[in-house]
Each structure stands twice: as C-alpha cells, then as structure tokens.
# Entry
Amino acid sequence: MSLARYFLLRAGNDWLVTLEGQVMVSCASRTEAIEAAIVMADLMGAMHYDVDVMVEEEAGKSLELVWTYGRDKLPPAIAKRKAEAQRPRRHVHLVQRGEAA
# Structure
C-alpha cells in the first residue's frame, strides 16, 4: 500500500494534525496532537497502509519522525484505550429478530 504521512504543524498557539494537506484536527498542545495523530495513524496502519507521524516544530525547520506504524509501540495511554475498546461489552446482547429484549 501507499504511504500515509501525518504532519503536525504549529499554528499560533495550536497544533494542527494534517493528512495530505487537509487539517484533520486542531489541538491545544504538541502532546495532544501527537496522540491524536498516532490514533489516526494506527487506524490507517490497520488498513494496511504504511504510515508515520512527522512533527515540524517551526516553519521551515527540519521534520522530526515521531512514530511509525509497525515499528513503534503505541503510547501506554493509547494502548490501554485500544485494549478497552476491544473488550466484549457485557451490556450489549445479541437479539434475534422476533425476540423480545
């Protein structure tokens, strides 16, 4: 598959997460932007894209590679949320058509 690359750019007091020139989300901090980008990149990676996250600290300065799908582990907070989301939900019950709940 092709490469999907998320860029994090500073815009005033905010950080923008972009993909293919489109702003995906605006965050208040660099850390928040990196986490948001990694979550999105992890989803793209699960769809068999080669994907990474790059940060531009200042306009015109060199880019920093901060995360690559398949090479880097998910940060602990993201890994925990992902594991919790994949657990079966006890409050969700399958109902056959015609059955009363």
